[in-house]
Amino acid sequence: MIEGRPRRPWDRTPPGERDYFELLGEGLLAYVPARPGGSGGGGWSPPLGGAWVHLGPDGRVRAFTGKVEVGQGTLVALSLLVAEELRVPFEQVDLTVGDTDRSPWDMGTFGSRSMPDAAPALRAAAAVAREELLSLAAKSSGRPRESLEGEAGHFRARDGTWSSPYGELVRGLRKLVEASPSTPLTPAASWSLAGHPRVDPTAEEVVTGRRRYTSDLVLPGMLYGAVLHPPRYGAKLRRVEMGALRDLSRVRGVHEGDFVGVVAPTPWEARSALSLIEAEWEESPQPDEAEIEAYLRAHPSKGDDWDTDRTVQGDPETAFQRSSARVEATYRSAYLAHVPLETRAAVGTWDGPRATVWVGTQTPFRARDHVAKALGISPDDVRVIVPYTGSGFGGKHGGDVALAALRLSRAAGRPVMIHYSRPEEFQHGYFRGYTLVDVRAGADPGGTLLSWSFHNVNGGAAGLDPPYRIAHQKVDNELSEAPLPQGAYRAIGATVNNFARETAVDELAVALGSDPVEFRRQNLADERLRTVLDRASEISGWKVRRAGEGCGYGVAVGLEKASRIATVAEVRVDGSWRVKVRRLTCVFEAGAIVRPDNLTSQVEGAAVMALGGALFERVSFSRGVILNRRLSEYRVPRFSDLPELRVELLNRPDLPPAGGGETPMISIAPAIGNAIFDAVQVRLRALPLAPDGRVPVPRRRPAARTPPATR
């Protein structure tokens, strides 16, 4: 039924047995084998499914990766790298992403891992294909390899006496070659395609609305589904009565174990029918929002410690007592929702015993395994395809909506779409966890950090370790049995950990009367981070800043996912304590830059998203029910909130490309919080900083309504 479906998923078939050439046609195919995860280079490395690159007689390059495109620009960036290594025009590369039948296995598109994971594998496959083509060209021309060069999809003799397009060299060929770790890659300093601005050729489709996302798909005979969800977290289905649906000839109800859903010709009919189902639920006690901090501290996780990190060095308590400047405080961050532009959506269909589902997920192979297990079929019989997806931000892991679409499709015998409403997305998704960070830190009179005790509750280990030289430190992380579902979120715990750390560092600088930039420079252990800090200080005018009535400046730095960020914020707090972020200056370094225009957009987007979590975003809940389930109730950044935003990228062609989607998030909140303190001497230690748009005024207000002038 579905064109181009392998007999068996390629990732589950040995390379020599894959039906590459039956589906792609004759030619040359280079592949990078899968690599198990483990310890390498002194640290943990993720498992990798490899990559494959096919070149056919038509001269087109067909490359395959397990990553997906959810708006971050991965498809274009990876295509550029393939074109670079093969010496072909960018327009000749077709990259397949997120198709579990035809793509290499991949653990998921998250953690800024597309550049570190997919790029090296695709480059290696393209490079070994180039070397094999060079051998074919030498044989075809009767010339030595060193006398030939590849350019624009052709091999040419350097003296201009011979030329052949790649396609002619592979005509009639069916050859499979494995990439070697020793295959030479093109140095970033020599890139002619990558590293330069490149407009996404499909960008016009996005701005004109012609791009088709998961929720836009329509298959012949397709029905629409709706799923019965629990009224609150922790509720279990006790009894269901679906008799009222018998009078609806166009509606079919489905009840399989704990799963209850309906299908109908239109979304409205499906949702209306769902409301006629009578269900009884067994509910378990859930904490209220006011009880969340005590609950998290009293309920440490009983599961494994995969997300823990602990460092003990020296004697932090004795060093704390010896410090002349001290900070002892708890920093907090509320639950955050992902708020993707496109809510969860999936279209499922069956072709005999085999299932196919189009779904907006960041983890298609995990979704395949989840669906297969739940349906009691082999993963070989499940194909997950990820179309263009309207963002994820870490919120679209797994395959629950894919499973629901396939359950309903199997019962109805026709394709079925499920598309969550915005309230469903809020209530039945998951969140970035509510986090507490306890900090005890101290410094000596000369501005040297002496003591650092950092205890994270429920935030995760990302970004936990400080980038500063501190002789005496204790850093640990403790997960909790949280009452609301929580999971990945853009930069996840690194944002909260960096907020707590950079706020505490600022407090120490203020206590010592030190310049916040110079205090950081003095203590930073990472030269790359010091470089971005120096540049942010320079272009923001930090040294010549002029604080006026209610105007303040703050700085913060961060290191995460092998990239570095420094942010300087300028804020204004007016006489009614309302906060306006006037300017954000961000300097970002992520190794070699593959696509500078897109990376700039990534940093800008991350800064705007982080602005919401810094100032006003928070999930409100009561006894397992989300109270602000609509965008009219959950405050995200608006155009009127946006500051002047200056982004500068520092290119490091001597380093491998790192991810750019997460790290720019982590310095926004502390920079803004530190700027608010500079403006009005009110230290804010909880995110969001200004939930109603205003600084939470301390109990002892200044006599005048106008905030005090900056010192």
Overview of the molecule:
The protein is built from 16 helices and 31 strands. Helices cover 26% and strands 24% of the residues. It starts with 19 loop residues before the first helix and ends in a 24-residue tail after the last strand. Mean pLDDT is 94; it is low at 39-43 and 702-711. The chain has 711 residues and is an alpha+beta fold. The chain has 3 domains: 10-194, Aldehyde oxidase/xanthine dehydrogenase, molybdopterin binding domain (Aldehyde Oxidoreductase, domain 4, 2-Layer Sandwich); 216-283 and 344-419, Aldehyde oxidase/xanthine dehydrogenase, molybdopterin binding domain (Aldehyde Oxidoreductase, domain 4); 299-335 and 431-687, Aldehyde oxidase/xanthine dehydrogenase, molybdopterin binding domain (Aldehyde Oxidoreductase, domain 4, 2-Layer Sandwich). The chain is globular and about 80 Å long. Strands 13-14-11-21-18-19-20 form a 7-stranded mixed beta sheet, sandwiched between helices. Strands 16-24-23-22-17-31 form a 6-stranded mixed beta sheet, with helices on both faces.
